[in-house]
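R.M. (postdoc): so does anyone remember the format we settled on? I'll just put the structure tokens first.
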């Protein structure tokens, strides 16, 4: 800070500063006497000190050093005292003391050495006078220096300023999610959904937002409003995840001021436990149903918030996995989907989650109507695929007769393809069924249903979350990549149908090949390398991945030296005596 900043505000308090000394010395006849007088008037006014100071002179300790150490010591004591005042006596009295102290000291707020004290006083005041807040807000450096407790008071009446602070954090959050989805580490064991909810809530962005909000309901509402607006503008479902994570982070800290006023709190808390287990058990299903059925007339707007909580990919993942598990159980119990209340509840929640964007956009708060055919036709169709697998497996074990083994059914029922194209919930459940059979290494079922993925509702089969999970599960079928038929079905029949119009698909294929290139038949790998070459329009990420793949493939090629040596083997070889066998 410049000299002026060092003495900022002293004059207003009637304390002499460097400028006064300069003026005194400029206009006096005896400078030494003037300096002595200035020291006497402005030094530490302790009679016993006057005789002790010459000792410091004898030890060569400059007066500045002495005064600085006294000053630092006093400042520490004052900071301790301010923090103590904030906790003692009656509420009105303690805040009255702090307000008086702020009134006296605020003029020195720009003086670097005193600033921490002024800031500490403001931090402990639940309501800093409006005038002072405005002065802090108007000065960039002061605003930066003040504690989050003071900033909260500024933010709650300045949504735009708060938005400027929150915006980079939200961008960072989305970027972090996308980095995980596009990570080069592909594994069926570790994927996007592996971290537990508690671990995710420890992330930097959630923690920062939690701290910025504190116990301030108004700021919490503002963040929720930002998330709703951004979700509407971008359709990016990660904002829904953040909505749930933020609420549960405040829940972990037992911030009842906020949790008690958020109507989604108990529902989110119950769903959070299901996400942790990756399964909705019967007891929690009843609880969740109770919340949905308990939405009273006139309070339907809460459905908008509940739908956003259910639209969180971690919630959808849990509901879809639970649905597949239920369907398998039903096959074993000879029960139809329509007869299972638990399954119907899962579909109801999936439907509410998938309808979040439309509901918030239209502001019509009522649960989406479930299509009967989803329950009466589509789910039984999925169950018939499970039965096909059982029958095929049993048949393989039976002694083969003259007619030879029965082939695996290859036709896809037209209804299945149609449902995947036209019904969002059917599509979501269908995709999770395909992930399920891939994880079971069921190549036959995978190849049978794969063609249905080329055209799906809203291109869901080409969404990042599905492709991230699919590429992870495909590593379990690694050995199949050596087969021409498998690669043609997977790459030509699925990935390559969309990679040129969807950059994300291009990235996911390259991720997969980076991981499995050594398993792919060489001729196929070569044609894929040609097909996947980036164009001028391709983004940096695609180019970077392609370069990484090219480098890996170069390393695998035999070196030119080896290639040239091979023909020389045809020359007559000198006879070498064979070593005696041991």
């Amino acid at each position: 800070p410049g000299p002026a900043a060092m003495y900022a505000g002293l004059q207003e308090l009637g304390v002499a500063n460097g400028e006064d000394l300069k003026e005194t010395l400029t206009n006096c006849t005896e400078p030494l006497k003037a300096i002595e007088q200035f020291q006497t008037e402005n030094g530490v006014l302790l009679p016993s000190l006057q005789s002790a100071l010459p000792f410091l002179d004898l030890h060569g300790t400059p007066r500045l050093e002495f005064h600085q150490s006294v000053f630092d010591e006093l400042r520490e004591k004052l900071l301790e005292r301010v923090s103590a005042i904030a906790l003692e006596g009656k509420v009105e009295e303690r805040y009255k003391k702090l307000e008086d102290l702020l009134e006296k000291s605020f003029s020195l707020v720009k003086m670097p050495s005193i600033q921490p004290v002024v800031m500490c006083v403001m931090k402990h005041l639940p309501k800093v006078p409006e005038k002072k807040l405005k002065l802090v807000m108007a000065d960039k450096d002061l605003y930066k220096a003040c504690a989050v407790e003071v900033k909260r008071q500024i933010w709650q009446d300045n949504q735009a300023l708060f938005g400027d602070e929150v915006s980079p954090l939200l961008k960072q959050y989305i970027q972090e999610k996308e980095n995980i989805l596009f990570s080069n580490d592909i594994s069926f064991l570790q994927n996007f959904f592996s971290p537990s909810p508690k671990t995710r809530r420890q992330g930097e962005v959630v923690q920062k937002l939690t701290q910025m909000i504190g116990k301030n309901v108004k700021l919490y509402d503002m963040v929720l409003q930002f998330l709703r607006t951004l979700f509407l503008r971008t359709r990016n479902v990660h904002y829904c995840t953040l909505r749930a994570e933020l609420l549960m982070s405040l829940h972990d800290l037992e911030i009842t001021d906020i949790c008690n006023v958020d109507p989604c709190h108990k529902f989110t808390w119950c769903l959070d436990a299901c996400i942790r287990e990756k399964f909705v058990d019967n007891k929690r299903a009843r609880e969740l149903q109770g919340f949905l059925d308990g939405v009273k007339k006139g309070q339907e707007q809460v459905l908008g918030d509940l739908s956003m909580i259910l639209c969180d990919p971690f919630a959808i993942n849990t509901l879809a996995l639970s649905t597949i598990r239920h369907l398998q159980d039903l096959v074993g119990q000879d029960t139809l989907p329509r007869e299972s209340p638990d399954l119907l509840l899962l579909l109801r929640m999936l439907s509410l989650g998938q309808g979040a964007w439309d509901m918030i956009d239209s502001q019509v708060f009522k649960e989406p109507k479930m299509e009967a055919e989803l329950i009466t036709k589509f789910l039984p169709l999925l169950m018939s695929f499970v039965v096909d697998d059982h029958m095929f497996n049993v048949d393989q074990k039976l002694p083969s007769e003259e007619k030879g083994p029965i082939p695996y059914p290859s036709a896809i029922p037209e209804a299945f393809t149609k449902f995947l194209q036209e019904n969002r919930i059917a599509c979501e459940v269908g995709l999770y069924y395909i992930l399920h059979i891939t994880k079971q290494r069921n190549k036959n079922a995978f190849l049978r249903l794969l063609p249905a993925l080329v055209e799906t509702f809203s291109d869901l089969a080409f969404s990042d979350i599905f492709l991230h999970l699919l590429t992870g599960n495909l590593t379990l079928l690694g050995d199949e990549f050596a087969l021409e038929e498998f690669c043609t079905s997977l790459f030509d029949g699925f990935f390559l149908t969309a990679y040129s119009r969807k950059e994300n698909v291009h990235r996911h294929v390259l991720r997969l090949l980076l991981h499995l290139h050594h398993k792919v038949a060489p001729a196929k790998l070569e044609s894929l390398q040609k097909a996947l070459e980036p164009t001028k329009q391709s983004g940096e990420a695609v180019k970077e991945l392609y370069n990484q793949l090219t480098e890996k493939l170069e390393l695998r090629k035999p070196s030119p030296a080896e290639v040239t040596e091979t023909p020389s083997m045809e020359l007559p070889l000198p006879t070498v005596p064979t070593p005696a066998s041991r």
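R.M.: ...and that's the designed sequence above, right after the tokens. Also worth knowing: The chain has 32 helices and no strands. The mean pLDDT is 86.
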